[in-house]
Specification:
The protein contains 10 helices and 17 strands. The protein is an alpha+beta fold and about 400 residues long. It has 2 domains: about 120 residues, PAS domain (Beta-Lactamase, 2-Layer Sandwich); about 240 residues, PPM-type phosphatase domain (Phosphatase 2c, domain 1).
Length: about 400
């Protein structure tokens, strides 16, 4: 028995944790035993703590709620564990993970409490640093959300707010970004007294970088001659401007946006000029998705144009095409987010399905036909949703001329 007691004493003296025993039968529940670990943690000698209540470790920043839980456990005589900011003899603070366990006599009455103190300061400081870092991340995340929302609002503001009112011509568009910021953009506006510009483009990639280039291109493809690539200075030197041809626009953009290996960005584009008198569209397609032409009384046709994306090669020559539209004809421009939408079996929505949907909805008003196409493609890729931006722009020549 003596050997066992000596082994117990050596074990308690060697443990890194502080161990105390208090006697609840004595006034103020004083400490009657403390080991060497308690000395190391607190800086108080065993002689200094015997006969005292453990509250001498408390200080001005010790958590009152934790103390209340500890005192309640002592009063109700049950086990408890708390973390307290305690103070050493030299006045320095440390985080103490304190657990107390009641000891009972043969009659079941609590006679003592065993207290185990662990210095968890490093762990607590690490937790606090992690919490502070998380708060900073959350704040940065909220700021980023607000910035993204503001940037998305800027992008939406660059889309057609009011479509041009052109006698005998209807226009409509649909835009569904797959993220807050899109690489797609489109627009339609008046160039001069008899011509209307219409374009749709798709910047490679997603996110902020793509949206920045998309916004930049929106400003360059504008109705303001002084800053727009859709116009060029007249040769008379009088400060006036003339409308640039679609091929000239593509060549100028290719010159201004050469391929940058660090960002690997380029973009595809359809740009056309509609003559409001003849209903003739002169256009170029720089590597863009082929438009779909729906003539009145005939099946939808894919206008295979071809061409290279803008920015991939130093020199770009886009061949202009001309489409003469008649009463009841429609032209649909789109980005690849529509036809490349995949279902769970990784099957694409595809060109043929698009053509069938346009044929099915040719009797709907122009804007409604776009809504129907987007809804059909969305059902196709449900529940995962679109993986790319979805944009459509459509032109219709009224069958009544009004």
């Amino acid at each position: 028995m003596k050997a066992q007691l000596e082994l117990r004493d050596r074990a308690l003296a060697a443990t890194a944790e502080g161990v105390t025993i208090s006697d609840v039968r004595l006034p103020d529940n004083p400490i009657i035993y403390a080991n060497a670990g308690f000395e190391r943690i607190t800086g108080y000698s065993i002689e200094e703590v015997l006969g005292r209540n453990c509250r001498f470790l408390q200080g001005p920043d010790t958590d009152r709620d934790a103390l209340d839980r500890l005192r309640s456990a002592v009063r109700q005589k049950h086990a408890c564990m708390v973390q307290l900011l305690n103070y050493r003899k030299d006045g320095t603070s440390f985080w103490n993970r304190l657990s107390i366990t009641p000891l009972r006599d043969a009659s079941g009455n609590v006679t003592h409490f065993i207290g185990v103190q662990s210095d968890v300061t490093e762990q607590k400081l690490t937790e606090q640093a992690l919490q502070a870092a998380n708060r900073k991340l959350e704040a940065a995340g909220e700021l980023m959300k607000r910035d993204l929302a503001a940037a998305a609002a800027v992008q939406r503001a660059l889309l057609p707010q009011v479509l041009p009112r052109i006698h005998g011509v209807n226009m409509a568009w649909a835009f569904r970004p797959c993220e807050e910021l899109a690489g797609d953009t489109l627009n339609v506006f008046v160039l001069d007294d008899h011509r209307v510009a219409l374009y749709i483009l798709d910047v490679s990639g997603h996110g902020v970088a793509s949206s920045l280039l998309s916004v930049t291109l929106s400003h360059l493809l504008s109705a303001t001659p002084e800053r727009s690539v859709l116009y060029q200075p007249s040769r008379d030197g009088a400060g006036s401007f003339s409308v640039a041809s679609p091929a000239q626009v593509a060549a100028q953009l290719n010159k201004q946006f050469p391929f940058e290996p660090r960002t690997a960005q380029y973009f595809t584009m359809f740009y056309g000029i509609l003559d409001t008198g003849t209903h003739e569209i002169r256009y170029v397609s720089a590597g863009h998705v082929d438009p779909v032409y729906v003539p009145a009384g005939a099946p939808p046709q894919i206008l295979g144009v071809g061409g290279l994306p803008i920015g991939l090669f130093p020199r770009l020559t886009c061949e202009e095409q001309v489409l003469k539209m008649g009463p009841g004809d429609r032209l649909y421009l789109l980005t690849d987010g529509v036809i490349e939408a995949e279902n769970d079996a990784e099957q694409e929505f595809g060109v043929e399905r698009l053509r069938e949907e346009l044929e099915r909805n040719r009797c709907l008003p122009l804007a409604d036909s776009l809504t129907a196409v987007v809804a059909c493609a969305e059902r196709w890729c449900s529940p995962s949703g679109f993986a790319d931006d979805v944009s459509l722009l459509a032109v219709e020549i009224c069958s009544t001329g009004g």
